[in-house]
Amino acid sequence: MDxxxxxxxxxxxxxxxxxxxxxxxxxxRSGPGYRIESLEVSHGTRTxxxxxxxxxxxxxxxxxxxxxxxxxxRWGRKQPLWGMGTLKLRCERGEEIPEPWNxxxxxxxxxxLWQPPGxxxxxxxxxxxxxxxxxxHVLAVASDIDPV
Length: 148
Fold this sequence. Notes:
Helix content: 25-40%
Shape: globular
Distance between the termini: 31 Å
Number of helices: 4
Strand content: 15-25%
Largest sheet: 6 strands, antiparallel
Number of domains: 1
Radius of gyration: 15 Å
Mean pLDDT: 90
Number of strands: 6
C-alpha cells in the first residue's frame, strides 16, 4: 500500500459504524465500539530468523511514523506517545481493560493516538509484533471507547 491507501483505510475507519462487530474477515480484530485493521503485514517473520523479524519491526515503525506525520498534518499533533506498560501492569493485577485497548496492550509496545477534530472517535496506530507466532503488523485502531 502507498500513503494514499493507508490514509484512505484510516478515513474508512473514521466513518465506519462501530456499534456492533461486523464479523468481516479482513479485520485484525473487531467488536462493538472498535475495529483494528492491519494496514501492512510482513511475510515469513513468524518463524525463523529473529534478526529478520526485528528488521521488519524497524521498517514497520518507520512506516507508522510516516503515517503519523501525515495524520498530524491533517488533525494536529497527536496525544503524547502512549506506552502500553501501565495497561499491561493493570491487566496483570486482574483489572479488566476494555477492547481494543486490551488487545493493543498485548501486541504493541506503544500507540500514536488522536481524536480527530469534531469527533468522539479515537484513532490509534501501532506496530503489532509482540506475538511471535504472528506476523508483524502496522495496526490502525478506531474506537468509540475512550482509552483507559
